[in-house]
Design brief:
The chain is of the alpha+beta class and about 100 residues long. The chain is about 30% helix and about 25% strand. The protein has one domain.
């Protein structure tokens, strides 16, 4: 690995609690002029509301980096495993606020 790549790498520490991850099948995304807020939630069929499991707040610059990183990883995934089936029917749930993300 060349020296520039080594200098740009950041070591990541993760606790056992965080390493277990959080399952989400629903996301609500909002923004202001200074930040993006992403609520990752779980919703079960037949339940009246989603339960937020994690809230991530990002600067606009980091939100754009996340967008690019997700696009890059989706492209790599599809190159290995084939296209992800895009189900055009939007999941509809009875939740009160925000714009529903398709999860």
């Amino acid at each position: 690995m060349d020296n520039n790549k080594e200098k740009n790498q950041i070591g990541i520490e993760i606790t056992d609690e965080v390493a277990g991850g959080v399952y989400s099948n629903f996301a609500v995304i909002g923004h202001s002029n200074s930040e993006f807020v992403v609520d990752f939630a779980q919703i079960m069929p037949g339940t009246p509301k989603a339960r937020v499991k994690s809230r991530v707040i990002l600067s606009p610059q980091h939100a754009k980096r996340l967008f690019k990183a997700l696009a890059d990883n989706i492209n790599k995934y599809e190159a290995m495993f084939g296209p992800i089936k895009d189900v055009n029917d939007r999941m509809t749930f009875n939740v009160g606020n925000g714009t529903a993300g398709e999860a």
